């Protein structure tokens, strides 16, 4: 069983050991391209969530094809990065959060399940895999243990009123891509952990306007920390010891 890293904004590539091999995987939900290589002596697949050159906006990402492709490649564990806005004034830019819960506030997004025609109801009491979370926390340097991720449709940023509302619901960070990726991974039987990097304070909390350029700048500054965290977690994770998770009842062919 292999490990995958899904890179979000600012993580459009992830250097792997050896000569990287691009793999195009066809699924019933579409095609997905991944890069296969080695990290810490293990086979690792890297998938750029927004495609090469960050060309795919959040509301156009084919999440089902991406997750189905990883399942087809016999991936067992997924570490996924997200750039997020903070809903807390004390979690400033550069804060790394190992997520432990989520809120789905995607109101218009489709393709949120593999079970369109079958009544399968997947348990997501704990949407992020605890073994993967612990692998991250074991090597994490100055990371937050636990945080609730709220996912909105995007592609616009949130209003100040929305930020106040989301915070009142108990969310800690807000992004545009963690859903349905996390829940599809659970349906597919993949262990999944979310690592969020705060790139800005939410609207109305910080000063000034939020820009994509500013988000990418913070991601670039924190890239070394993030790579060290992911490399260490891959090294420590034993995929053979991971228990069965989710229904895993679909054929990606």
UniProtKB/TrEMBL annotation:
Matches recorded under InterPro entries: MTAP, Nucleoside_phosphorylase_d, Nucleoside_phosphorylase_sf
Catalytic activity as recorded in UniProt: a purine D-ribonucleoside + phosphate = a purine nucleobase + alpha-D-ribose 1-phosphate
Molecular function via GO: S-methyl-5-thioadenosine phosphorylase activity
Keywords in alphabetical order: Glycosyltransferase, Purine salvage, Transferase
Pathway assignment: Purine metabolism; purine nucleoside salvage
Gene Ontology biological process terms from the UniProt entry: L-methionine salvage from methylthioadenosine; purine ribonucleoside salvage
EC number, UniProt record: 2.4.2.1
Pfam families cross-referenced by the UniProt entry: PNP_UDP_1
Top-level enzyme category: transferase
Positions in coiled-coil regions: none
Positions with a binding annotation for phosphate: 9, 49-50, 82-83, 177
Span of domain Nucleoside phosphorylase: 3-234
Subunit field text: Homohexamer. Dimer of a homotrimer.
Family indicated by similarity: Belongs to the PNP/MTAP phosphorylase family. MTAP subfamily.
Additional notes on this entry: Although this enzyme belongs to the family of MTA phosphorylases based on sequence homology, it lacks several conserved amino acids in the substrate binding pocket that confer specificity towards MTA.
Role description: Purine nucleoside phosphorylase involved in purine salvage.
Name under which the protein is recorded: Purine nucleoside phosphorylase
Species of provenance: Armatimonas rosea
